[in-house]
Structure prediction request, 315 residues.
Amino acid sequence: MEWTNRSRVVMVGCAVLILACGAPAQEVAGAAARHPGPRSSPTVADGKVITIVGTVVDATPDCSPEKCEKLAKCKSPEEAAQVLREILGGLPASGATVTIANRETKQDAVTDSYGRYAFTGLPAGPHNIYAVMVDSEGKPRRSTPKGTQCDKTVHLVLHREFITVSGRIVDPNGRAIIGAKVTGTLVPMSEVGIPDTREGISDANGFYVLTGFEPLNLYRVAGYLNGGSLDAIGALQTQVEIGVQAEGFRQDPSNVPRVPLIAEAQLIPGRRLWKALAQFAAAQGDGRLWQEPQGRPLPTSRGNTITGIDIVLNH
Prediction:
C-alpha cells in the first residue's frame, strides 16, 4: 500500500477514498502567495531584505472510540472520507502565534482564519521559525522549529506531543562511550532542501536523547500495521537514522539504526483506526484490503518515547 503526505487512498471495491489532510501543498503555497495573510513588516536600515510566508495547520488527531465507531459504520466512501478528515486533523490553525528570529531580532505574527502568516522586510540571513497555539483545554500545540535564510514559503504543523528517541552508545565490551555526538536524520528525505536533523551528546553512562520528532499521521500508522511500507513512494520523514561520531571509534555502516517514528502513544490509536477501517472495508465488501495485522517491526517505547536504540561503536 502506498501513501502520499497530503492524500491518503483506500481502495474500497471500485470506489476510491481520497482523504485530504488539509489543502494540498501546491494549493496552500498558491493561496499564501495570492493572500499572504497578516504581515509583520519591520524596518531595515540597509541591506537586502527577504519575505517569509506560509501556513500553519493543526495535525492533532481525534481518534476517540466514538469517532472510530462512526467511521466503521459509514455507508459510503464519501461519508468515510469526511469522518477520516475529522479524525486525522490537518485543518488550518487560526490564531496561532508564529515567531521568527535570528541572532539580533525576534518577531511575531498571528495567523488569519485560513492559517496564513507573512513576514516582510526581514534582514537577509538565517532565521528560525516556529508556531504555537493554545487549544480549548489550555494545552499548547507547537511546531518543530525550521531554519530558513531566503525568500521562502514555510509550512508549519502543530502537534500536542512529539516523539523522543533514546538509547546508549557503547563499545564492543558494553562500556559507555561518553561525549559521542549522536545525530538523528529524518528519512526518507525529499530530493530538495537540507536534511532535517536532531542532535544530542551521550552522557557519563553513554545515554543519549533526541527530541522533537513529529509523530506519523495515524492513517500511515494504521497502514503500516496493515503491511504497508514506510518507504513507499511519497512517504517522507517516516523514520529516523541514528548516526554517531566519537573520537577513537567508528560506526559500522551496517549498524546505522533506521527507527520507525511510531511510539506507544501512536500505536494505540493507530490500531483503533485500523480496526475501524477494516470494519468499514468489510461492510463495503472488500475486507481483503485490511487483513488482521501481522507482527510488524517496532521499537520498544513508552508513551511518546522510543527506548533501547543502543549502538555499538568499534575501535
